[in-house]
Amino acid sequence: MSDSQDIETATTAIQTSQVAQPDSKTRRYDRQLRLWAATGQSSLESARILVCSGSATSTSVLKNLVLPGVGHFTILDAHVVTPEDAGNNFFLEGLDSVGKSRAEEAVRLLSELNDGVEGQANTANLDDILEKDPSYITSFSLVIAHNLPSSTLDRLATLLWSNTSFPPLIVIRSAGFLAEIFIQFHEHPIIDSHPETPASLRIDKPFPALLDHALKLDIENMDVIDHGNIPYVVILVRALEEWKASHNGSPPKTYEEKSEFKKGLLARKKKADEENFDEAAAQAYRVWTETTVPNEISKLFSDPGVTSLTPSSPAFFHLLKALQQFSSQPPHTLPLSSTLPDMKSDTASYVHLQKLYKARAEEEKLVFKSILKKNGAPVDDAIVDEFVKNAHGLKLLRGEKWGSLDADKNALSACLKGNTKETATHLALSALARIQAANPSVQPTEDDLRTAVLALIGGELPRSSSGEVIGESELEEAIGELARAPTADLPNTAAFLGGLVAQEAIKMITRQYVPVKGVCVVDLIGSWTGVVQP
Amino acid sequence: MAAVNGTPSSGDWPNRYFHVDQILDKPGPRTDPAFSAGPVVKDFLRNQCKILVIGAGGLGCEILANLALTGFKDIHVIDMDTIDISNLNRQFLFRPRDVGKPKANVAAEFVMKRVPGVKVTPYFGKIQDKGEDYYMQFQLVICGLDSVEARRWINATLFQMVDDDNPESTKPLIDGGTEGFRGQARVIIPNMTSCYECSLDMLNKPTAFPICTIANTPRLPEHCIEWASVLEWPRVHGDKKMDTDDPEHIGWLYEVALNRAKNFKIEGVTWSLTQGVVKNIIPAIASTNAIIAASCCNEAFKFATSSAAFLNNYFMMIGTDGVYSYTFEHQRRDDCPVCGGEELAVEIGKEWTVERLIEMLVERQNIQIKKPSLSSANGTKHIYFQAPPQLEAATRPNLEKKVFDLVGDAGDILVTSHSLPFSLNLRVSYV
Ligand SMILES: [Zn+2]
Fold first, then answer.
1. Mean pLDDT, range A489-517, rounded to an integer
2. Full strand arrangement of the beta sheet holding B411-417
3. Does the pLDDT at position B383 exceed 80?
4. Do A33 and B272 touch, CB atoms closer than 8 A?
5. Per-residue pLDDT at A18
6. In chain B, positions 112-151, which contact chain A (CB-CB < 8 Å)?
């Protein structure tokens, strides 16, 4: 390239780049679009969230949903701002807010964070709405409730559980340094879970074009530079084929065979510094790790959603059914992923290999689509593409109703044995809620709390096989803390929960990443989180 | 000005601290017996404690708001950055009209307006502008930075300030960091816990592309972008500095990278990827920042009030798959150049040149010194110096010499760097 050409490229670049440059909305959301992309963002922007109470914790949650651009939020709160509220809530303006509607003040100040978000205050009473207008509540896409009186919370949870199409509910309970959150939902399918492990390259089961390419390569007569640039995938496919030819069609199986295979790979080097052969040796496990349908995925095939599929089932189950049929045919794998990791190679060899993978992935996707079509299950093309691309990370969560754990004494006992400090903290919070429901104006004592916990678990703490009582000290620690600060909505605890709950809400709304299952307990004295799950 | 940010009545109203006072009025089962519940602890927190926040960005905004609400009334904040539009998805003290203004000033202003009676003193500049006398005035330092370099600097500076005869000179450092759905908060107490330098090898290794791949065998869109920024920019623009915040510069890189990608039939060069690669962008969201900032402030609150045991000493969480967190005691490294005292042993080849040794110092996970200067015999014999220019020129010929020939068998080398306020003792042995 001459200099004059460069100047020309440079000037045209500036002109065209103004076209390619992202708009101000994309720039504003840049740091989060790198996590959940445009699809996640558009789900977020169409979400409508109802938050019950305008407490410090509630506004902390909302702050973290308004900033990334949730579509709409409503704060439902009939209270006026007290001096106590004005002291611990960043979305109130000190004494100026005292006496005004807590919902209205908080909505006004939260709305300042993002012009693109619609906020609404509702000063009605939640119990009245539950009584007279439950469809108002079910019209939202997600409901979040902080420290509701337990009778109200139970009614809300029962309403939202009564129909599988009703929105999920995130329950938050907190006092002082201790807290817990729980997501109530029926089922939650996730196509893009962002798994850590990449999809198989299928080196052990090479597709015809890959095998053909690996076998036809004239490796012996290659010059030294080309030889040092053969992608490891090709080296492995070729070496495996040659191995099988001399071992009755079997891959290396024993430890000795595997070592021998690896040694053989390194012996193929023409020069000592050929990194591609080092890579091949490091990746050799791919040769004897059989590519099959991962266990977590094949388990989904026996989910009731698949086994009792009807034409009106959600698309996810039609896709799972088609995936089951696809993988029941040879080579008994998931559809090939077109993503090729980087590897030592020259441009031409790498791009050629990438093309082979892309072409094959496209073919297999067509096979998958034809199965769907034969099943009479039309699914939007973009969703099918997403599904096939992320097939190795599919998830289906099935949730439980709020309160089901506390209704099951055996489960509580088992949890106490397995996750002692988490369950002890959960029990103490349940006990506190019960006492406050029975007598809202009285400060509970440690004795009150202990009695309420024992009532929950059926009289006494469980014992280990050696006869030791389980969870006593953990329970005393939690009870003591709650008796100390039974109604404290601490700014730091509120902020922590604000982050935690918003993160879970975003995962629920975008259907990306994996939300927490079970009761997630937070202890900000020990600075830990943990999950209680039967 | 004790009266302004001092006495309980200033800016306070009855029941203002109703929530926090439940904690401060009596101990809990896990509270240290030394805790003096009631007026004493409240007076210390609200009238005497002076706290420094380093960084007014994603974590800093959250930290300032939390500290103000919990009752810290004398807060200082340092930040050298100005506000960019891409900050607005999480840095909630800033509005579109603030773009271009100093973060520290806007954040301080906002918190003072929203939380009456709290004094926030901003400094728009670098932490390195300030000396020991400045840092000595604080009881606590909270750090919410995205720069490894700055954290190493403040960590080493606080360690150097410790005077055994003066307990006040030990300044706890609470450090937070986030990346996407992950984050960590830790408490560093000089000479008691491990330090930031001890954990350098826990950092994710930044992706570095070999120059020969970029120049000759690009395979990924990233390789084309690196080619545009590392090789083409200086070739075409000479000494003109690339400004990764200037959309015209990014646009130029994008076009150049796109053309190269087309020539090599590589797909995937986009504006967003170009920006991500050249600015080394780390995804960031409000929710993760909130969790980590709250953790930091909670430790600061527990530390300042003794109302509950504080974190010993590391909390990390990952929110991608459920809620996973791990709380543990991070261990000191005996050969940590800041807190360990022992020499760091390295094995090198007998044939190694000084240049090769310097490359290793830059790259090794537990060293990572960007521009190291080397000397031997307790610093008296220069091996290679990066600056000043005369010394650099005088020592440059040593770069091609063998380390063994310069320092011999019992090879002790002193490594220093302008960017770090400490030196590293290397004990070299040969294989
Ligand atoms: Zn250290």
1. 98
2. B344-348, B420-430, B411-417, B373-376, B381-384
3. yes
4. yes
5. 53
6. 114-116
Under an 8 A CB cutoff, do A64 and B251 touch? no
Structure confidence by residue, pLDDT tens digits, A99-149: 999 999 999 999 999 999 999 999 999 999 999 999 999 999 999 999 999
Q: For chain A, what is the mean pLDDT? A: 94
Question: Which residue among the candidates B49, B61, B198, B212 is catalytic per the annotation?
Answer: B212
Q: How far apart are CA B387 and CA B9, in angstroms?
A: 55
- Residue A4 confidence (pLDDT): 41
A533 confidence band (pLDDT: 50, 70, 90): confident
CA distance B365 to chain A (A): 21
Q: Note the pTM of the prediction, 2 decimals.
A: 0.94
Token output for B419: 């960017």
* β B420-430/B381-384 pair status: unpaired
Longest dimension (CA), chain B: 75
Contact partners, residue B66, CB within 8 Å, separation at least 6 = A491, A492, A495, B293, B294, B297
Q: What is the mean pLDDT of residues A462-489?
A: 96
Q: What is the pLDDT of residues B157-216, one digit of tens each?
A: 999 999 989 989 999 999 999 999 999 999 999 989 999 999 998 887 777 888 999 999
Ligand 1 centre to CA of B200 (Å) is 9
Q: How far is the CA of B341 from the centre of ligand 1 (A)?
A: 9
Query: How many angstroms separate the CA of residue B340 from the nearest CA in chain A?
Result: 27
Check residue B424 and give its pLDDT.
Answer: 87
**pLDDT for the residue B251:** 94
Asked if the interface predicted TM-score (ipTM) of this complex is over 0.85, the answer is yes
Residue with tokens 């006495």: B7
Could you say which of A56, A485, A499 has the minimum Cβ distance to residue B23?
Answer: A485
Nearest to A114 by CA among B95, B322, B180: B95
Which residue of chain B has the CA closest to A31? Answer: B283
Interfacial B residues in 169-198 facing A (CB < 8 Å): 180-181, 185
Q: Where are the domains of chain B?
A: 49-203+284-328, 211-279, 343-430
B chain contacts of residue A339, beta-carbon cutoff 8 Å: none
Evaluate whether B307 touches B27 at the Cβ level (below 8 Å).
Answer: yes
Partner-chain contact B256 A12, CB within 8 Å:
no
**B343-430 CATH, one of 1.10.300.10, 3.90.700.10, 3.10.290.20, 3.40.50.10840:** 3.10.290.20
Partners of B272 on chain A (C-beta within 8 Å) are 22, 26, 30, 33-34
How many other CB atoms are there within 10 angstroms of residue B180's CB atom?
20
Would you give the DSSP letter of residue B102? Answer: B
State the best of A503, A510, A519, A520 to mutate against chain B, taking most chain B CBs within 10 Å.
A503
pLDDT of A5 reads 42
Rg (CA), chain A: 29
Instruction: Using pLDDT thresholds of 50, 70 and 90, give the confidence band for residue B9.
Output: very low
Of B27, B216, B287, the CB nearest to A499: B287
Does the annotation mark B49 as catalytic?
no
CATH class of B211-279: mainly alpha
Q: What is the DSSP string of A3-49?
A: HHHHHHHHHHHHHHHHHHS--HHHHHTHHHHHHHHHHHHHHHHT-EE
Q: Pick from B69, B272, B327: which is nearest to A491 by CB?
A: B69
Distance B197 CA to ligand 1 centre (A): 5
Q: Are A333 and A293 in contact (CB under 8 A)?
A: yes
| Pairing of β A178-184 and β A519-523 | antiparallel
Q: How many other C-beta atoms lie within 10 A of the C-beta of residue B149?
A: 13
List, in sequence order, every beta strand (DSSP E) within B233-343.
314-318, 324-328
Contact B282, B148 (CB under 8 A): no
Any idea which fold B49-203+284-328 has? Answer: Rossmann fold (3.40.50)
Q: Are strands A187-190 and A395-398 parallel, antiparallel or unpaired?
A: antiparallel
